[in-house]
Design goal:
4 helices, single chain, membrane, Outer membrane lipoprotein-sorting protein
Length: 266
């Protein structure tokens, strides 16, 4: 049994230990506290691994797998430029003649032999889990405000453990596919590793995993794999086969020109 004096000392040391633990925890948190500007710069760097230039041509091959076997493939040539504008040309034979235009929060689809483009949403499916928004949007920094959330070790596509920052992305524009994104980036390089993509309802829509390769002698995202937890036997892979600087005339970025333009060579 402790005497009264020993009990006082014991109580004192317990309180001191709690204070020290709290201080260490606070210092640890402080060491990982980043300003809003720093976190947005992290996000911009993560974006740069997907797309270097504001005006570019991106040749995307989308493959739907079922039970790890190829089910369908489609090719899309995406012409993107500043101010969240993209023109998507459908190149596969089964979709020949289709075109899609994104101007900020607005999307139009032009079908062959129709006089006018129809309005669509960014969540409309193209193939498997790949949606209109997944194909046409190649940057987060314009649509989301990011905040640092946690340190975490996660596995990359090869199964290797990587020290990562988890960022919380909240949409600041109305027409995005996902209201919220949990994004994990490499702690050293800010390369995007994984993302959980949430709808406005709060439901997890899909998970994205990013594959790293080399483009123009620099590390780059060469593929994005989209997974659906409800259908684990299926996965959709978007391969970025070619990314080059490219500028189209302004006329191609107008809905009225979609039905009149000849885009077979694009």
């Amino acid at each position: 049994m402790f005497n009264q004096r020993q009990q006082r000392y014991l109580s004192y040391f317990i309180k001191l230990s709690v204070c020290i633990t709290g201080l260490v925890s606070s210092l640890a948190m402080a060491s990982n506290t980043f300003s809003e500007q720093q976190v947005q710069q992290m996000l911009s760097t993560a974006d740069s691994f997907r797309l270097q230039d504001d005006a570019a041509k991106v040749v995307s091959l989308v493959t739907l797998y079922q039970h790890n076997e190829v089910d369908k493939t489609r090719q899309y040539n995406v012409y993107t430029r500043a101010n969240r504008q993209s023109l998507v040309i459908f190149k596969s034979a089964v979709e020949a003649g289709q075109k899609m235009l994104m101007l900020g929060d607005n999307y139009w689809l032009q079908m062959p032999k129709t006089r006018r483009p129809i309005r669509i949403t960014p969540m409309q499916k193209l193939l498997g889990e790949a949606s209109v928004g997944d194909i046409s949007t190649l940057a987060w920094r314009y649509d989301y405000k990011a905040s640092w959330y946690a340190n975490e070790n996660i596995s990359d596509v090869s199964g290797k453990s990587v020290a990562a920052y988890q960022l919380k992305l909240i949409a600041v524009t109305a027409g995005v596919s996902y209201q919220k994104i949990d994004l994990w980036i490499d702690k050293l390089t800010y390369f995007p590793l994984r993302a959980d993509l949430y709808l406005a309802s709060g439901k997890l829509a899909k998970q994205a995993v990013f594959s790293q390769g080399i483009r123009d002698d620099k590390p780059a995202v060469v593929a994005m794999t989209l997974l659906d937890s409800i259908q684990p036997s299926k996965k959709t892979v978007i391969e970025y086969q070619q990314v080059v600087s490219w500028k189209l005339d302004d006329k191609y970025y107008t809905p009225s020109f979609l039905s009149r333009s000849n885009t077979t060579e694009l």
